[in-house]
Write a structure and sequence with these properties.
The protein contains three helices and no strands. With 106 residues, the chain is an all-alpha fold. Keywords: Membrane, Transmembrane, Transmembrane helix.
């Protein structure tokens, strides 16, 4: 069961970091568009996949394993959302401040 959890956590991390990299590139490229849709979809897909992993863990290890994986998954996704969105917001604020500094005053 540990191998299942390691694989699912690794895949989730790759998915979330890939989405964050795409969002970061869009911010740095000053591309207006979905504004966070990529990271939102990645979080939803990762959370949905973790439900499947929780069911498999429950099947293998019983109810206690199912509840432990669900609780861990909720904390993991909450933490990743706070961490990734906070970083992206900092980058967006820095880019906006640089743009305001370059524009002529009225």
């Amino acid at each position: 069961m540990v191998l299942l959890l390691i694989i699912s956590l690794t895949l989730s991390l790759v998915l979330l970091l890939g989405a964050a990299a795409m969002e970061r590139a869009a911010i740095l490229g000053r591309i207006n568009g979905a504004n966070g849709l990529t990271i939102l979809v990645a979080l939803v897909v990762s959370a949905a996949a973790s439900l499947v992993v929780a069911v498999l863990a429950g099947w293998i290890g019983g109810w206690s394993a199912l509840l432990a994986v669900l609780a861990g998954s909720a904390l993991y996704h909450w933490g990743m959302a706070k961490l990734l969105l906070g970083g992206l917001q900092a980058i967006a604020s820095r880019i906006a401040a640089a743009d305001r500094a370059k524009s002529p005053s009225r």
